[in-house]
Amino acid sequence: MLSVATRGSKLALWQARHVLSLLPRVGLQGKLQVITTQGDRLTDAPLYDFGGKGLFAKEIETALCERRVDLAVHSLKDMPVQTMHTELTFACVLKRASAGDVLVCQPCHRRLLDEADADAATDKTFTATALRRWRGLTIATGSLRRRYLLEQANAGVKVIAQRGNVDTRLKRLRQGEFDALLLAHAAVQRLELQDLPYRVLDPTWYVPSCAQGVIAVQSRIDCEHRAALRQLDCGVTRQAVMLERAVIKALGGSCALPFGCHVQHTATRSSYVVNAVALAPTGRQARTAFSVAIGTDPEAVVAETVQRLRDDGLRLVLQELGL
Questions:
Q1: Are residues 130 and 184 in the same domain?
Q2: What total number of domains does the chain contain?
């Protein structure tokens, strides 16, 4: 029986139990071990003030290295893009759920979402134009990327900082502390949050965080079950998110900084589309979107992404971010 480490939030437990449900397919069994991380304890402070999203993984990775647990289940977007402990690896990367963000609002604002749907000819994703209907309303998020994307839409909304797990943030929304909240679409799907209205934000404008929507299982390199776990790996997802992580790393940042990167395979699977954005607090941004043939050297894809961002003013964005 493998000991599988996870954080204790409702979403983290859902993800870990999902992994447990998959283990018998490859001849394995597991039990959960909940570990409270520093990121869980710092509920009222921005992550970027205390070292970024790696705060959600440090204690869990230490438990793995010290052989107190056998496996760990992570939201891959919460994992630092810098090199992990040399004795650890991602044993499998599960098939990605929706990578996008959603705007979740109080029921009294459902009309604004419906009006945005009526304006859209075909695609029902929520756009920067639709956001202008929210002028004067308050939207909460704890992410710099999400905050700057909203502010740079010039829609006149008030953006406030909000930390805590999904349950805590939704409770504050229901209590009327703000009008709407930004969450990962995957979290809404996994927790079946259907009592509050929401819309998916257009990912070509609202570029997702790198590796958003992806569950990763971490193990020690010498884990005897790595071959079995690899059978649960989704190669398409792994290829996409490792490119996203490499782009963010090449920009000199971490997943806590205001960068977005999303690599999505086309319907034919013959190519994928790269969307990336780097944002500064002054309103400056650098963006790129382009298609790449499957099989292109990953290092070349990363280099092209960074060069295209440079051509769009990346140097000034990084300068303003102090990078």
A1: yes
A2: 3
Higher-confidence residue: 160 or 45?
160
DSSP state at residue 179: S
Is 0.85 surpassed by the pTM of this model? yes
Task: Judge if 90 and 106 occupy the same domain.
Answer: no
Locate tokens 């990084």: which residue?
318
For 73-93, give one letter per residue: b (16+ CB within 10 A) or e. Answer: bbbbbbbbbeebeeebbbbbb
Is 50 exceeded by the pLDDT of residue 49?
Answer: no
* CA dist., res. 238 & res. 218, Å (int): 13
CB atoms under 10 Å from CB of 115, counted, come to 11
In a domain, 241, yes or no: no
Please tell me what DSSP assigns to residue 23.
Answer: G
d(CA 57, CA 38): 8
Residue 140 lies in domain: 101-200
Looking at every residue in the chain, the average pLDDT score rounds to 90
- 38 has pLDDT over 80: no
